[in-house]
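Workshop exercise sheet. Pairs work together: one partner reads the sequence aloud, the other fills in the structure field after running the prediction. Swap roles for the next sheet.
Pair: D.N. / O.F.
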Amino acid sequence: MREIWIAGLAVPAAAIVVAALVYALGGPVAGFAVLALLLLAIVIWHLTQVVKLVHWADGELDAPVPEGHGAWRIPFTRIYRRVRARAAVHRDLAHTIARFQSAAEAVPDGMVVLDAANRIRWANRRAQRQLGIAEDGDIGTPLANLLREPEFIRYLEGGDYTQSVVVPSARESGVTLSMLLVPFGVDEKLIICRDITELEAVARMRRDFIANVSHELKTPLTVISGFVETMQDMDLDAHQRERYLALMEQQAQSMRRLVADLLTLSALESEQSPAADTTFAVEPLLRAVYADALALSAGDHAITLDAGPAATLVGARDEIASAFSNLVTNAIRYTPKGGRIALAWSIAEDGSGMFSVRDTGIGIAPEHIPRLTERFYRVDRSRSRATGGTGLGLAIVKHVLLRHQATLEVASVPGSGSTFSVRLPARRVHRLPAAEGARETAVPARG
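Structure field:
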């Protein structure tokens, strides 16, 4: 402050000294005239500095601070320092905002900032995709105009944000979103959108699984319970008792098969029980599957085996045998008596191996094929239950193939039969050098 007083009073003091000299030399009129002119010049110069300051204040925010002179040099310098400090703060703030936005873009969830009136102030790209927010046209628009789900609007206006709300995506069909609103700042809100489509699917599968298992066990348990009560309450002859016991044993076998398949499926799905790979010859496996097919068919079908080129496989033998057997078992169950079932093994030019089961059964409509490997999925529930299937066979096949990086290919024409093919990757198939020719075995249908 002392500098300002010194600089501010130096010029008027000099003017007074000059005027006094003129007064002494030229008389009072000349002295006062010179003093008046000098004071006027000083006032005009100060006004010029004020105009310069006002012009800068009315200009662009990033305009440079003008340079001051004399007594004005000090305040202009102080203003320049303050502006430079404020600019540094703004740069730091902009950097912080940019980092926040970058972090928000990296978050796997959608994020939307709303103002006090629930208008969109900002949204990351994921939220823009999930909610259909246009970055250019929808900023400042009420979110309720874009997301018109009644459940979400009630949640937004209700004021209780302790829990999230589940709504379908406004932009992506089949996507389910969990939306949680978090108040922050002064009447501002942050909405976090999370894609829970897979979680919902898993929860739905769990509910369906429990319902299906309960349903599958309920029927045989009801039958067994009914026969037990009957045998307790009634005096039965030996023939009736044997008949009831046979039916009870049949239902018990059905439950045992279901439990066995559930345990197998659980073991296949467990990440803590990886496939124990061994190298084994494919022909003995095919022969074993073929023998089981003959036993299950009991002569009702013409079953052939084309063992193809000799080879060895790398994988879990029991799991691959289970997958092959399930495909063959399905073919037998869904092929009427007198039908034909052909088992074949081949190696493609790329080295991949293929085991196929072709039947002349009832066939499958195209809309059912994508869901065949779902647990308990049945094209015809009544027919499936009559054939003794548990509804888990193709689910087991699916998980075995996943563990062996193999694929299942299905081709079917309703009323004309189906072909189920397992394609094993080339790295798991080793063709033997001295490959034998194709070998075929056939069993005629029972007359």
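Discussion prompt: Residues 435-447 have pLDDT under 50 and may be disordered. What would you look at next?
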